[in-house]
Amino acid sequence: MIRIACVVLFAFALIFVGIQAVNLYDDLLPVGRMWETPAVRSHEQPLPVMAAGSVPWTGGEALYRTVDPETLQPPAPLDDPERIVRGARAYGFYCIHCHGPQFDGYGTVGQSFAPTPRDLRSAAVQALSPGKVFHEISYGIPDGRQPPLATTMSVDERWDVIAYIRSLGLRE
Question: Are residues 25 and 83 in the same domain?
């Protein structure tokens, strides 16, 4: 019995010495361990003071979301050739998957929807005001398949796509 107690006591002493060695190693280590990084204990660090003017109080996306779509106007003319070229490129990134290369709603993804996405060259779409199209691209269509793209596309890219859609004209 004494022999077992001595073995257990020796094991505990060995574990204790091992833990103390690891603690000493951690104290002398020039870099911190994972449990000491700011990523794990960020709540213990003081929050940095934000520079004045770093949070906008006017303009931005909220301005576009709250304005009446019928009165919203593009910041630059939609018939600018450079804007149309940029719009074609953005259409290829963001829109072609649903609306398709023929702008008729039969893209790779759009053809599986019922109903299919709107024909961008239809009279109904071409008659919409630029602000209304901007709102539909940015914030989606309620009960529709148009996803909101305000967090995906920049404001300029959305206006460029609208310029490109306008340049297509009506389907014959």
Answer: no
